[in-house]
Amino acid sequence: MSNKKVIKKSNWGGFRKDSGRNPRRGGTAKICVSVHERNWNTALKRWKKKPSWLVDLLVLSYVKRGSAVLEMETAI
User: Fold this and answer.
1) What's the pTM value of the predicted model, to 2 decimals?
2) What is the Cα–Cα distance from 43 to 61, expressed in whole angstroms?
3) How far apart are CA 51 and CA 41, in angstroms?
4) Confidence of residue 73 (pLDDT cuts 50, 70, 90)
5) Are 54 and 43 in contact (CB under 8 A)?
6) pLDDT on residue 37
7) Rounded mean pLDDT of 57-63?
8) What are the CA-CA distances from residue 10 to residues 4, 14, 18, 36, 76 (Å)?
9) Residues 16-23: contacts with CB under 8 Å, at least 24 apart
């Protein structure tokens, strides 16, 4: 065994100010998406990457199409 005295430091461990992830600037929005199982399986067979990326891509394209429709309605 060591004969050295163990010194406890009060700043070791525990919560630290300004640590961890920063919150998103624009906030977050939750979206609920439902897909028929057959359509999902077909899409996964064609998609060679992560399934979560497929969901992100589909939601992004849906949002872009929705904003385009809104812009067209305001132009009319």
Assistant:
1) 0.45
2) 15
3) 10
4) low
5) yes
6) 92
7) 82
8) 19, 9, 18, 56, 66
9) none
Q: From CA 11, how far away is CA 1, in angstroms rounded?
A: 26
| Segment holding 64, helix H or strand E | helix 51-75
Task: Say yes or no to pLDDT of 11 above 60.
Answer: yes
CB 14 within 8 A of CB 40: no
d(CA 61, CA 55) in angstroms, rounded, equals 10
Report the distance separating Cα 73 and Cα 68, nearest Å: 9
- DSSP state for residue 20 in the 8-state scheme: S
Residues 17-45: pLDDT tens digits? 777 777 777 777 777 778 889 988 998 89
